[in-house]
Specification:
The protein is mainly α. It is 71% helix and 1% strand. The protein is globular. It starts with 7 loop residues before the first helix and ends in a 7-residue tail after the last helix.
């Protein structure tokens, strides 16, 4: 066989590996469900191509100890899919057994369950393990040749450059959608294929580190400069992603590379490359986005601020990991299994704990986590010894260390963009042979090896078929069925089929609970709500559904407690329902909790509903309960406002005097005191107090506007304008600026200086052109000045913008202006 034919299968394998590295980021950073299928197809193709080439040309396969890690994980994942008797499940995973007994058995789903909480997610994890292990194995073989090694490393580096350049292009164009087609949920500072800045920074950091490795090990100065420039491009993308974890890990990686270069006493361009890349990257990024970047980095500048980031979530994630400490919740099952333990950021779905150690603990359990950690440590030590003296491989190993460091604060390895690149780099690092270590074990690839490669690919394809569709597709499918309506029985059967596949997905239970509540079957709805609350105890919507079901079942007191629980969690959409129910029962004390803020919001609702008696009853109940000093002080402040609602001005002043000084310093209470003093005939005293406070706090717009209003009522427009001039630099926002100019116009009108008033009103109208009231005021001013035609134009403009009723109310004004204009016209033939 010609020599060129002897490697064509390996060229195909190399091309498929490169295609996996380049194409997976384009699947929205590997976030799309079908990206795992693409990964398996490319990895299986690469494995089979290499195996066929090796079998046809009688080549040997190399094995490295790091491959035992994915093999072990694969075995654990497969074992976690085995159905277990309830008694065995209760021993290995008590939390999962509790889920089965509470949620599934009453629904008739009594079959044996595996250890994994969500089998489809674990099947997808199995597919990923098979694919990534295949890529690592193939690159381990290809990396023994210098040409494929350099080419694959170049692909990793250039793929990151492509991602960064796409981001820069969108940044320069000011685009908010990817290629004008896809809009990510939320805004990202650097719009690229990645919808998450942490995933983006992790991918660019690895690519930049690989480019740096090629630069420091380049054979010529020109190559070193070229690869260094690519590292700079990726590094700039890391900084512009504003990912604190990504920036920190990337800088740490570059610093370690620099220290490595110093320890090897490498001089010249290649020795200076790491420091040049660090400095140039930071300068370039700061020149483009210095303010947001520095603000982002300042958020972790101290230990206290660091604790206020993702680290504060670690205890919550630890609770979830501890509950599954014996055998884990199953690889890939974290998103569904963790909801029972989520106590904060309830509007966020945590797909991963954003900490690699906590993720391994959660999904594998503590014994297997310790074994995995030991295995990773031993493999890392062997790889470092194996690459000693090899600059390229040592820098690549440091780039992998940077990825692991980033994974302690974010997550990117759990999607499908970064892992193929990591597998390729790891395989290429492991392919380095050391003369100081025993020669790696090699085996001839025979027909059995070809069959084994086919079997491995088959396992990957089987796992993909078992793992798709995902639980999100199941939720969408059930939502569509529920939306279609119809009999409850077929909807329930469809729900049971999906729940049997995803038993920990609270959304499936919630869809049925909401449907049953809408169908006015409260007892069944309540049973399903209890399952939702079992899986997601802090779900406010479920508590609301439970409250309404309890009302139908004749349990109003319990319903009131469910309403209150929903408010405490954060859903206050049912405040009115709860207040009406409390008024009906006379149970105001059941509404209150010892948490500052809720009492104020409840009282505000009574005022907006024009129910002052309910507000009085609410405050009376607060005085009888053993509440914290903060809530009692809140009740005292509300007593002031309650007196103001009743019009008891003397009580307002006396209650204000009884409040602590720090409470009366609130701007709203200061203004209330001033207006109350004015109302009881002590306007001069109110102005004196308000003027002194406004001068101490010139940035307080409300104080200045109130002072100007009181001065105007006292007939002192010049002093009122002076108060407005002091606060003018601090007025921001179109509505506030418009209000300032309108107040200024009122002051000029008070002095009958219509021209100055007209200027102020025109400025306000330019700021808020769609407000009809401003056009009416302009018309009034113009009419006073005798400009009847202009006044009529402004009235007509206001009517166009006004409601039909508001426009109709101006008919008399229009008639009067038209009549006045007619009288003002003098006939040309008159004497």
């Amino acid at each position: 066989m010609p020599s060129q034919d002897s490697t064509r299968w390996w060229y195909a394998a190399e091309a498929l590996v490169a295609l996996a590295v380049v194409s997976l980021p384009m699947t929205l950073g590997g976030a799309l469900d079908w990206s795992v299928a693409l990964l398996v197809v490319l990895a299986a193709g690469a494995l089979l191509s290499w195996a066929v080439g090796a079998w046809k040309h009688r080549r040997r396969a190399t094995w490295h100890p790091f491959l035992w890690i994915p093999v072990g994980l694969l075995g654990v994942a497969l074992l976690s899919q085995l159905p277990l008797p309830p008694s065995v499940l209760a021993v290995l995973s008590p939390t999962h057994a509790e889920l089965r007994d509470f949620s599934l058995v009453p629904l008739g789903l009594e079959r044996w369950r595996p250890i994994t909480v969500d089998a489809p997610s674990t099947w997808r994890a199995i597919a990923r393990i098979v694919a990534l292990a295949s890529l690592a194995f193939v690159t381990l073989q290809l990396g023994r040749l210098e040409g494929p090694k350099r080419r694959l490393l170049g692909v990793v580096a250039i793929s990151g450059v492509i991602v960064a350049v796409v981001g820069f292009g969108h940044l320069l164009a000011g685009a908010d959608t990817l290629f004008g087609l896809h809009h990510f949920y939320g805004s990202v500072p650097l719009l690229s294929f990645f919808g998450n800045t942490n995933h983006l920074s992790a991918y660019l950091a690895l690519s930049g580190s690989v480019a740096l490795a090629l630069s420091v090990d380049a054979s010529s100065r020109e190559s070193a400069i070229g690869w260094g420039a690519l590292a700079l491009v990726c590094g700039a993308g890391v900084f512009l992603s504003f990912s604190r974890g990504g920036i920190g890990a990337f800088v740490a990686t570059l610093a370690l590379v620099g220290v490595l270069m110093i320890s090897r006493r490498r001089g010249g361009v290649r020795g200076a490359v790491p420091w040049l890349v660090i400095g140039a990257t930071m300068l370039f990024a700061l020149s483009l986005a210095s303010e947001p970047l520095l603000e982002r980095l300042a958020s972790v500048s101290t230990v206290d601020r660091l604790k206020q980031t993702k680290i504060e979530l670690w205890p919550m994630f630890w609770d979830g990991a501890s509950a599954y400490s014996r055998a884990g919740m199953g690889l890939g099952a974290f998103e569904l299994a963790f909801t029972r333990f989520q106590t904060s950021q309830l509007d966020v779905t945590f797909t991963h704990p954003e900490n690699l150690a906590l993720q391994w603990m959660s999904e594998l359990g503590m014994p297997l986590f310790v074994m995995l950690l030991a295995g990773v440590g031993l493999v890392s030590l062997q790889l470092w010894r194996q690459t000693r003296g090899a600059l390229l491989e040592q820098v690549l190993l440091l780039s992998l260390f940077g990825v692991a460091l980033h994974e302690l604060f974010d997550f990117a390895l759990e999607l499908n963009a970064l892992p193929p690149a990591v597998a390729v780099v790891l395989g290429l690092v492991a392919s380095r042979e050391s003369s100081k270590l025993p020669e790696p074990r090699r085996s001839m690839v025979r027909r059995g090896g070809l069959v084994l490669a086919g079997a491995i690919a088959g396992v990957g394809f089987w796992a993909v078929s078992m793992g798709l569709p995902s639980h999100r597709r199941a939720e969408d499918a059930l939502a569509e069925v529920v939306k279609g309506g119809g009999d409850v029985a077929p909807i329930r059967e469809r729900a049971l089929t999906l729940i049997d596949r995803h038993p920990a997905d609270w959304v499936l239970y919630a869809l049925i609970a909401n449907h049953l509540a809408a169908e006015r079957t409260p007892r069944d709805a309540l049973a399903w709500v209890n399952r939702v609350l079992f899986l997601r105890p802090k779900d406010a919507r479920a508590h609301t559904v439970a409250a309404r079901a309890l009302l139908v079942l004749g349990q109003p007191s319990q319903a009131l407690l469910e309403y209150k629980t929903a408010w405490v969690i954060g859903d206050e959409s049912t405040l009115d329902e709860g207040l009406m129910l409390a008024a009906k029962l006379g149970s105001w004390d059941r509404l209150l909790v010892d948490t500052p803020g809720l009492l104020t919001r409840l009282w505000d609702r009574t005022r907006k509903l024009n129910r002052p008696d309910d507000g009085r009853a609410l405050l009376d109940a607060a005085q009888l309960l053993p509440l914290s000093p903060a809530v009692l002080l809140e009740a005292q402040v509300l007593e002031v406002w309650q007196s103001n609602v009743r019009g008891d001005l003397a009580s307002v002043l006396s209650r204000l005097d009884a409040l602590p000084v720090e409470s009366t310093a609130q701007s709203e209470l200061i203004i209330l005191r001033a207006r109350t003093l004015t109302a009881v005939g002590r306007g001069a005293e109110a102005i004196t107090q308000l003027d002194a406070l406004a001068r101490k706090a010139p940035q307080d717009v409300d104080l200045a506007m109130t002072l100007a209003d009181l001065l105007a009522k006292e007939g002192r427009p010049a002093q009122a304008r002076a108060a407005l001039d002091r606060v003018r630099p601090f007025v921001t926002g179109s509505r506030a600026r418009s209000a300032l100019f309108q107040t200024e116009a009122t002051l000029w009108m008070q002095e009958e200086r219509w021209g100055r008033a007209l200027d102020s009103l025109q400025t306000a109208a330019r700021i808020e052109p769609g407000v009809p009231y401003l056009h009416y005021r302009l018309a009034e001013c113009l009419e006073r000045m005798g400009s009847l035609h202009s006044a009529l134009d402004e009235v007509r403009k206001g009517r166009v913008l006004d409601s039909p009723a508001g426009a109709k109310a101006q008919d008399a004004w229009v008639d009067r202006l038209e009549a006045a204009m007619t009288r003002a016209i003098v006939p040309l033939d008159s004497p």
